[in-house]
Amino acid sequence: MKAFIINTTHEYPVKISVPFPVLKENEVYLKLTASSLNHRDLWITKGLYPGIRIGAIMGSDGCGMIDDKAYIINPGLDWGELQSHQSSAFRVLGVPDDGTFGQFIAINKKYLFPKPEHLSHAEAASLPLAGVTAFRALIKKACVCPGDKVLITGIGGGVALFAMQFALAMGCYVVVSSSNDLKIAEAINLGANAGYLYTNPDWAKNLIADIGGVDIIIDGACGDGFEKLIKVCNPGGRIVFYGATAGKIENINPQSIFWRQISIMGTTMGSQEDFSEMVDFVNNHKISPMIYKTLDFEEIAKGFEIMESGSQFGKIVFSYTD
Amino acid sequence: MKAFIINTTHEYPVKISVPFPVLKENEVYLKLTASSLNHRDLWITKGLYPGIRIGAIMGSDGCGMIDDKAYIINPGLDWGELQSHQSSAFRVLGVPDDGTFGQFIAINKKYLFPKPEHLSHAEAASLPLAGVTAFRALIKKACVCPGDKVLITGIGGGVALFAMQFALAMGCYVVVSSSNDLKIAEAINLGANAGYLYTNPDWAKNLIADIGGVDIIIDGACGDGFEKLIKVCNPGGRIVFYGATAGKIENINPQSIFWRQISIMGTTMGSQEDFSEMVDFVNNHKISPMIYKTLDFEEIAKGFEIMESGSQFGKIVFSYTD
Lengths: 322, 322
What we know:
The structure is a homodimer of 322-residue chains. Chain A has 322 residues and is α/β, with parallel strands linked by helices. Chain A contains ten helices and 17 strands. In chain A, α6 (203-211) packs parallel to α7. The first copy, chain A, is globular, with a radius of gyration of 19 Å. The mean pLDDT of chain A is 97.
């Protein structure tokens, strides 16, 4: 069968013919119909991810068929029994385990969930990794409530957009930030109440002047800008981060955290239970993932180029027409 | 009556004669029998605390009598209705409100709780501020469970010692840190399972080699050493800090936080509910505060000197013999 593998850690995945996978215990064959791209995939092609196995089929997100039934895959493998954190056996699907950028995948059937009926295959393939990450961050860690003011940073990325959609579905007042005016306009068009250009040094001051502050922040950047997230966080508020594209956290004044009873929580991916609840939430609220571009399976390298440019607003999806 | 007031922000409180306080609505007179010192008092005498009112009677912690009944005071005034954080009206007793370093105090009766019977007046006066801070940090924020491994930094301080005693009462495995070998030995003598000199650059490595890591950390220092707290924190762990004697937090690697699902929470003082539950906990577990030195009411300046030297292990208490 055809598949895109990680060949070296300094190029995009390459398409080769690989043997048809052999089933292990409890595994079934899923004929993939769509997959989507995550930042994780890009980092793997740059060698910036632990546990890279050269030759592995890439791809964490997938939708596919068994006979006439459609499924999506929970890409969080062997999370373990605890809800608080993943076990040491945990892996994200797609390097080192063979992933979704192939025509078929052999996957333990416990990771298969029926495709939400209101979603196309392309939309469903956009959901798993970013959806479960956003769900755990917003619902399980930040414990969002209707009416909360929620700031989602870096709007346009997969996790950020799901966090925005989930928060809007919960009845929150949602503000977003970006370095790109157009992405802010697009988020407001989708229902966000306001947006701030974080490249404006006064953005935090402006947010406080406009709405006082926010109760919950979902961030994927960290870095120098983290200090301002604390400034705009209301007393009793929660800052949850799932990534660190802007690097280390510096120059934090602890007094502004403890006196205002703020909690800062790291999160990554989610448990099997988180995934199941996320799918229920998406079904109940009829949430449709934002797709930026649907490409053909053959055009996977082009997807990586778009992601590397940072221009996308929504998920980059690959449709397996064959 | 006699009282110690803050006269300038560059000297210890001075004893003067002040008018007997006038009762406001819902207030009663408590004849003070003992009080204790907190770091907050020292900071006020250095001008390092917001909202200082020159001329106010100092002192947050107190025990006293109404007729033949003994009470302690919850020093957290007007916390408000929410458990998550204090209202903007919140003040800690003793500057700007007149505090416990006087012969009498006029206090709203809702802040009075019966003195735990197993405690002397001096012991009971040690409990309020440090006790409620430790209780909220350990029980309400970190959600400690029996069997958890708990690290208490800076052992010897009031909050740290209560956190240690509460964690031991909960059936935790408790390790402590200090810059002072003798304080570590004393903590182990009181029931702590192990201790580490944080002045040893290898302390974190040694802790990990010894016990793997800890589930909960209660810290009052922050500063450069905070990075090592993250290193020794187990996946799913909680780091709760109530102070920042070592200053700003720098050089934090977010990946080590989000991948390991760690939460970092600021906390200060506690609600009326926290205080009430803390007193119940102390009664149920028959916990006796650690007193370092009991001085006479007249010797309040001497208490400040001891606290400034940092040599104390436990609370500095003033007994009002008259």
